[in-house]
Amino acid sequence: MSSTSAVEPGTRLAERFRLEDRVSESDGATLWKAIDEILARPVAVHTFAPDFPRVHEVVTAARAASRLTDPRLTQVFDAAEDDKSAYVVSEWVTGETLTDLLANGPLEPERAAGLVAEAAEALAHAHEANLYHLCLRPSHLMWTNGNTVKVLGVAVDAAMWGLTTDQPALDDAEGLGRLLYAGLTGHWPGDEEEGGLPAAPMSDGHFCTPRQVTAGVPGYLDTITVRACLPESRRGQGALASPSEVADSLADVARPMPIPISYPSTPAVASASHTEGLDIAHRQKTTPSPPLPPLQMPHRPSNGGGSTLNRVLMTLVVLLVIAAVGVGAWTIGRSLGSPTTSQTASAAPTSTQSATVNAQVVKPKNAKGFDPLGDGDEKSDIAKLAIDGKPGTLWKTETYTSADLGRLKDGVGLLLDLGKSMQISDVVATLSDAPGATVELKVGDSPELDSLKTVATEKNAAGKTTLAPDEATSGQYVLIWFTRVPTDAGTFHGTIYEVVVHSPGSA
């Protein structure tokens, strides 16, 4: 039987996923761009020919991967198989793969390390659930349009290819090492070139280390790469034998920050890669813009008039900066000297910034899922993940059938115990990017709902949300209370990646 998929554009799966564009097809597996008609968003859909040999394995792997909660891993929304068809639905990811980022040569060493550090932490979480990748390639590591790291294809790729191993932790650690090598050198340390990257140079039958290939690679990153994927060059150093070990070795590197990149009018799509037996859709090639240089005066021809003009402009800039600093200092002094005086609109932001600078971060003693109107507990076993200082981990509520908590209760939340009563200047909660949440900040000295006073409310909250009381507030217990939760793949739950409590510096 032909490997061509039996489905065509316009086909609707599960009465909600409408197939629109066939992105790629290989060996009986077809990748589509589709529309989730219920949530009105694009999704990636894999369909399979009737004679595809590993349908059950792929669907089983996808269902297991759907339970992963790390936002740096591709989210699987649905997977099904029956006598007529089989499919896997996952998020539609846009951005640039590591291959794209390396189009003009190696990355800055710290940026390459930061990208791989994020990937290593994400894969460590997958391994905790006994899910592995086994075929990491540059096309699997993405810097998304949302300025986040995304690792594509955990569990699903291996099932699609029929890959198995007796040492999954070691294999994925080696894969991460190869990604780091590629980021540092622009070369691929493998038996063949990968994704357009040239093969790594060799010396005496072994791959050269990153420092031998690219000048300026820090010694510690060269060592980490060697320990992860170049056994012949270790010289007695122990191997990094799991993603968690790779993550630990890179724990102190700076994490990647947004950089200005010129995307084509239709963003590049990378919901799958050829390592899955699928080719990425033909994309318009653009040259990524390098990071913006430090602000400097425009360069002009080096003649006498231009040089004089440069000096005049520089003098004006310096005078303007001095004037701005003076005005800011006067405004802050005025606001501090007259706290009860009504401030002008222009002075208000300065006062706020001053208060923020003086604020101290309070580390909660513990956290628990708070469900006093239900069964009493709301996933307290993972509540600590919202205060662990790691933005990739999270706490979330139970799943509900509607935004108003299935009409089962008026609210549910995350309760923090600060250990003692203290003044609260604000609480910053990083929620999911899905809009629609309504959250309240409640504070008090008793962990009872009736004793906690609502001091701030944010409607349609998403992403980083600051909850600041309008008046002086203090208490031992801080509650982030959801009264409405956003939707996610047809279900509803609230999510908190991280909570940071600030107390005035004078407290």
TrEMBL record:
GO MF terms held by the record: ATP binding; protein kinase activity
Region annotation (Disordered) ranges: 283-306, 338-358
Record Gene3D superfamilies: Galactose-binding domain-like (2.60.120.260), Phosphorylase Kinase, domain 1 (3.30.200.20), Transferase(Phosphotransferase) domain 1 (1.10.510.10)
CDD domains per the UniProt record, alphabetical: PK_MviN-like (cd13973)
Comp. bias (Low complexity): 338-356
Protein name, entry field: Serine/threonine protein kinase
Native source organism of the sequence: Nonomuraea rubra
